[in-house]
Design the sequence.
């Protein structure tokens, strides 16, 4: 049986219980559309005010009635309770590195730069998928959703999502740093290994894998157009992580060298963005391997970062 779960910093707090059936079904007209992923299945609901309490995984979604069905975890749900929707697993990191400022990183910036022409800027993302899905499981689908907040390009602007890799075979050489943004820190363009400082594109041992896995496309927007969501297929990457054939070192969004116009760049909302409904997330649908040792719902229980409360 396939199970869908979500990862990332996305959060939507604007919901109110219009009606409910016990503690297992909640209706709110604002749920129309299923959010940026088109479905709320795999997200987490948490009662934030009112009589009810608790948190639970969303297991069903009805776009006609605006109803979500949830698993165990909620209690005393009452009409007019307020609730929020977050990802099931919120342990994640993001950053960006740029050749324009080779010793600077953006670990706490609210927007992540993406650029190739003129100077290069690569957003990088990490979420703990391989710790929450049993090794050997089948990945039925996987996508990451990114919200473009700013763009400047005169035509089609494409980028591809790639795996961060480490030729030494050790994950220790990829350094993630979520401290305040600034200079001379880990995860910069002049990438800091244990003992060396090297350019990302000059060092084969700590780099990204130049294989197309999904396409970030902004060709629906122009310089004066609207921003919005893009989703990228990352199924092959997640499969490699879950099969233990690759360390999960994170993802890198890099420009496609053959199609970008001059002076093109975009900005992606980061996990620190003030508008929490713009923050990125990933959706993974998977089927557990036989004897995988998972919970009855196919979801591994583990620590959940944040103030969700309830069973995890």
Sequence:
């Amino acid at each position: 049986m396939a199970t869908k779960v979500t990862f990332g910093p996305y959060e939507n707090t604007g919901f109110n219980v219009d009606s409910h059936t016990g503690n297992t079904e909640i209706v709110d007209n604002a749920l129309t559309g299923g959010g940026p992923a088109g479905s709320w299945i795999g997200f987490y609901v948490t009662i934030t005010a009112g009589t009810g309490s608790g948190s639970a995984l969303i297991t069903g979604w009805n776009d006609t009635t605006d109803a979500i069905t949830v698993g165990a975890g909620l209690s005393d749900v009452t009409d007019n309770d307020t609730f929020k929707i977050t990802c099931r697993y919120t342990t994640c990191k993001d950053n960006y590195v740029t050749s324009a400022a080779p010793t600077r990183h953006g670990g706490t910036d609210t927007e992540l730069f993406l650029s190739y022409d003129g100077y290069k800027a690569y957003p990088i993302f990490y979420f703990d998928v391989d710790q929450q899905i049993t090794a050997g499981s089948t990945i039925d689908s996987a996508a990451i959703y990114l919200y473009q907040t700013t763009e400047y390009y005169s035509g089609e602007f494409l980028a591809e999502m790639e795996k961060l890799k480490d030729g030494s075979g050790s994950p220790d050489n990829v350094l993630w740093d979520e401290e305040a943004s600034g200079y001379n820190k880990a995860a910069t363009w002049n990438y800091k290994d244990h003992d060396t400082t090297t350019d990302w594109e000059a060092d084969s041992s700590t780099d990204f894998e130049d294989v197309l896995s999904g396409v970030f496309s902004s060709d629906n927007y122009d310089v004066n157009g609207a921003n919005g969501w893009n989703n990228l297929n990352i199924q092959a990457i997640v499969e490699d992580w879950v099969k233990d054939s690759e360390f999960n070192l994170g993802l890198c969004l890099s420009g496609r060298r053959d199609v970008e116009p001059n002076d093109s760049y975009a900005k992606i909302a980061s996990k620190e963005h003030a508008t929490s409904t713009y923050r990125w997330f990933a959706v993974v649908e998977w089927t557990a391997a036989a004897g995988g040792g998972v919970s009855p719902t196919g979801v591994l229980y583990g620590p959940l970062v944040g103030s969700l409360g309830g069973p995890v």
Remarks:
- The longest strand covers residues 138-152.
- Residues 219-225, 293-312 have pLDDT under 50 and may be disordered.
